[in-house]
Amino acid sequence: MQFRLLGPLEVTDATGRWQPVTGPRQRVLLATLLLNPNRPISVDELAETVWDGVPPKGYAQTLRSHVMRPRRSLQTSDPLRLQARAPGYALEVADHELDVHRFEALCRDAAEQRRAGVWMAVADTAERALSLWRAQPLLDVPSQLLSRTVVPRLEQLRLQVLESRLDAELRLGRHHAVVPQLQSLVAVHPLHERFHAQLMLSLSHTGRRVEALAVYRSARRLLIDELGVEPGPELARVHQSILSGDDLVFERAA
């Protein structure tokens, strides 16, 4: 089976057939079990997540009814997949079956390849990680608790692996190719200095030095206006390198 959380929750069986999880609380329940695989989660902990910290009276009985439908659906493929196991329930999930696990493993691989300076491998591995990302994680899972505790960490990982892929593209001399994406990224993440620095580098290497300097001025003004700070050392170093005409390359610490 395949379980996907990097976007709307999706479940497919061994034949690739989609297994719908229609109830909102059932989606929260299944997502919670998927994020804590292969170990029993207590009824109390599940109830806290399913009802966003305000479980109703008699929640243990209600929770059992919420478990029944996904349990029956999963039992079609594997009778032992979702089990009652003290003090609650456990869902058996192999690493390759869950997109979050594959994404995290690829992010780790890309970081190791980056430290080794194997840029072609970094570009390939990072792209494979990013291809798993369909939309905001847990998009149709209505849980503020999961949104606060899980989504920010995954989004931070995505930004890090995206940075690594773009650094690899720049190291490989693909400056023209990344300019449009970086222009979009600085618009979406205006306070993310790394993307500004990467855009400046790509513009400079494509003969667009004036535009690269304009990116710095815009980023500096935004940082001062929004955060009251000057650009960090990396962005300042790239700016100085463009002014002095030095050969530009990122030397980011591992």
From TrEMBL:
The protein, known as: AfsR/SARP family transcriptional regulator
PANTHER family, alphabetized: TRANSCRIPTIONAL REGULATOR REDD, TRANSCRIPTIONAL REGULATOR REDD-RELATED
InterPro entries, sorted: AfsR-DnrI-RedD_regulator, BTAD, OmpR/PhoB-type_DNA-bd, Sig_transdc_resp-reg_C-effctor, TPR-like_helical_dom_sf, WH-like_DNA-bd_sf
Organism per entry: Catenulispora pinistramenti
Keyword tags: DNA-binding, Transcription, Transcription regulation
Domain OmpR/PhoB-type: 1-93
SMART domains linked to this entry: BTAD (SM01043), Trans_reg_C (SM00862)
DNA-binding region, residue intervals: 1-93
Family: Belongs to the AfsR/DnrI/RedD regulatory family.
UniProt cross-references to Pfam families, sorted A to Z: BTAD (PF03704), Trans_reg_C (PF00486)
